[in-house]
Amino acid sequence: MMQMKQDPTRYKTLVDLSRMLLIFENEAGERGVNEIARSLDILPSKASRMLKAMEVEGLAERNPKTRKYRPGARFVTLGLQYLFTHPVRRIILPHVEQISKELGMYVSWGVFAQGRVIIVDRATVAAGHTPHLIGSNLPLHSSSFGKLFLAYLPEDKQRQVLQSIDYERFTPRTLTTLAALRNELAATLARGYAHDKEESRTGEEALAFPIFDESRSVCAALTVLYAVPKSIDREKIISYLKEKATFISRQLGYSEVRA
Q: Per-domain residue ranges for the chain?
């Protein structure tokens, strides 16, 4: 039987399209055709054709005044589809809402996917507070989420991710060296939770706790965020949240004793 030859340019276009989608992932705002072409190392004419195709599909929108592109409305639909159909959301979300009401704090849960921390759901009762948005991609080296997930990664995977981090300083307390972060991850693993001590934002602290699945792997993390200074009984909150995270983990099939 004769086999049809595969067109390598077809797959190159798919790779370029994927990279173009990732350009809009951060919060840089609108991008011009030439800027996008330079980022992808492709011709402006090709970038323009791809952007027009994305515009037709609702993945990109063109500002008629600036003639630059931004993510389209369909991005929101796809993102929400991922968030709302996440397999453990049905179990975790009610606990997130309950914890927020009981503690009067901003509470969220997130996952670690493709080397990124993504917030899936949140709940807050604090008026005027501006917590992270659902779908936010948080820094690994400073956020409680990031440090929690890094601490529980297999050693080889952790080493790979640590080498790829841009140790950007967000506050005077941000850990900006590999050695400092390694020490913090060891402490995180030892105590069973991660602590963002005003490392991401001045005036805000956060605590993150692991949620395990039936394979005994960390499948998600639960986080509370609070303003500093705030009169709280941290040890009492830590004990409460550890119990909550363990209860959720058991609902997901986790057992502390191997079968």
A: 8-77, 87-251
